[in-house]
Amino acid sequence: MKLRAPYLQAAPLAVILAAFLLLPMIVLVVVSFFDYDSVQIIPSFVLTNYRDVLGSMVTWRTYLSTLRFTAIVWAITLVVGFWVSFYLAFVVQGRVTQLVLFLVCTIPFLTSNIIRMISWVPFLGREGLLNTVLLRLGLIRQPLEFLLFSDFAVVLAYVHLYTLFVVTPIFNTMMRIDRRLIEAAIDGGARFWQIVAHVIIPLCKPGIAIGSIFVVTLVMGDFITVRLMSGGQSASVGLMISNQISLLQYPAACANAVVLLAVVLLMIAAILRIVAIRKEL
Amino acid sequence: MIRKLAGPFSRRRLLRTASLATAGTLAGFPTIWAQNIKNVTLRQFGTGVSNLNAIADKVKADLGFTLQMTALDTDAVTQKAVTQPKSYDVADIEYFITKKVFPTGVLQPMDTKRIKLFDKIVPIFTSGKLTPTSQVAQGTAPHTVAFVESKASTKFAPHPTQWATLIPTIYNADTLGIRPDLVGRPIRNWKDLVDPTFKGKAAILNIPGIGIMDAAMVMESLGTMQYVDKGNMTRPEIDKTVAFLIDTKKSGQFRAFWKTFDESVNLMTSGEVVIQSMWSPAVAAVRSKGIACTYQPLAEGYRAWAGGLGIAKHLSGLELDAAYEYINWYLSGWVGAYLNRQGYYSAVLETSKNYMSPDEWGFWIEGKPAQADIKSPEGKIMEKAGAVRDGGSFYERMGHVACWNSVMTEDRYMIQKWNEFIAA
Prior knowledge:
The complex is a heterodimer.
Chain A: H1 4-31, E1 35-36, E2 41-42, H2 48-55, H3 57-91, H4 95-106, H5 113-118, H6 120-124, H7 129-136, H8 151-176, H9 179-187, H10 192-221, H11 224-229, H12 237-246, H13 250-274, H14 277-280
Antiparallel strand pairs in A: 1-2
Chain B: H1 2-5, H2 11-23, E1 41-47, H3 53-63, E2 66-72, H4 74-83, E3 90-94, H5 95-101, E4 107-108, E5 110-111, E6 138-139, E7 147-148, E8 163-164, E9 167-178, H6 180-183, E10 202-205, H7 208-222, H8 235-250, E11 254-258, H9 261-269, E12 275-278, H10 280-288, E13 294-296, E14 302-312, H11 317-331, H12 334-340, E15 345-346, H13 349-353, H14 358-364, E16 374-375, E17 381-383, H15 394-398, E18 401-404, H16 411-423
Parallel strand pairs in B: 1-2, 1-3, 6-18, 10-11, 10-12, 14-18
Antiparallel strand pairs in B: 3-14, 4-14, 5-8, 7-8, 9-12, 9-13, 9-14, 9-15, 16-17
């Protein structure tokens, strides 16, 4: 009985994961080997889907563009997220103020992310708010076209959407840092940057890693932000998959999804390799 | 007659057939059915174009049963049709999608003998010719996928048979939408879409099967390419078309690619785009905001589409009868007038005439100047008195169809290439 109890306790989660994660994954992998035509999917075992995915320049270019977005967004959200957390954790005094300010950060998340994204459109457009203001002030003569339906717009939306996912875990780890360590560093004659580099960043590593995992997986799998903010002009892996699904090319979409999954898992593995989250939390 | 119809020998069927025989009409209406029809619920899905609550309300009032509607986008419609055949009773789908959907066996062929007004349907859907002298346009022309060989068949018949895949309900001719106040010159050809004057101010739709046809219209207009069939391109034709699109994209011609109706409306109203592929209700939506927008007829003709109602395979008995009743009602005029007043066309024009004022009929169908303000079915003013419909009369517009929305034989290859264009 004693032996069984832990298993029973874990069973509900195990069942849910098996039914809603493991099983779909298996189906995904199985279907990725199926054949298809424009009408239906044909159960069989073919490698054409993977050959199409891996052998096509489009895939490579799309991955490159998705990885580029990921790298840029990751870098920006990390810097912004770190300093926002830093401000909240070390500059702001008092638990209550800290908490209130942190909650303020989450206010935009009270609406759906699509609404938050779309709200950029009237702001950045050719006849949008920003261009109108700049034109009126005489700072520009022609409306700035790169603001909307461009890679700039995509990155902006990503940063807007995902910075909080970095702030939260980093803020969390920062709050756990024993303040006496910082005092000791100051007493030892460390300067501000030395404290940041040698005390705070190393102790924030789990938070940074968790935030990074969030951003990387979210950006790698995204399709709607790229579509809306680039005006459909940029590609992403998620968008490629969504296109294939909408055209009933399920096996191709599955093969693509399996490849994407593998890539993202590798990236997460790399992050975990650098930071042992469990040990340091 | 009883013996012929009573197929599976059920009591209800016998009774019903008997009563029908007494009444002397097959699937006639007003309805002569028993009370239990009120308990029937038909589940219909389709694009937002024709899945309107006003229709469901009218069905309840006229026919007594309930029609549940689900509106989805074009791609989702195909998906649902093929992958969830049990989740609907009536499919409101487009003809070109039928080419994909019907062979999967999720729909049942419809007996045209039970469609009372079948003979009055616009011949585009039967012979393929609008008038006896017209040419059949390129692409998946509706009549090529409108019939199957027998009740049990999923193979399309080249000529009309007793078994229809869909009964047509709605169709239209699409072209480019423009902002006449911002283009600064008359627009006459498809090639104007890629005129460098509109650099960064043009858009094309990102639905591969339709977008590539718009691109083909542009290329033919430029004279750089002549297609055997724009709706069924060969691989070299696809390669050249996509290469052209990529070049145009790299030159910065396009501001955006849109996928949904409202995206195209926003692009136009915000002035981000001044010329783009567009659908007629989107043009109306831009105009309703007080912004000038023209659905510009072009020298090379229109790209047309058509939709119809199909019946799910699993439907039988009373529900099946209700579905036929519903389809017959659909053609009988009220819905037709409703759709015509939105700028689409109905399958049986002459019945819808009874439900439209002479002025409405003159404006929408005959291309005459409006005598009074033209209102939408919801009562909103769409056009002021004196206005003439863009493109003119029904025959001028539907008579200049250059190609139909289509599914190509090289579909899979085309989509790969299209993705290349989007990724470029």
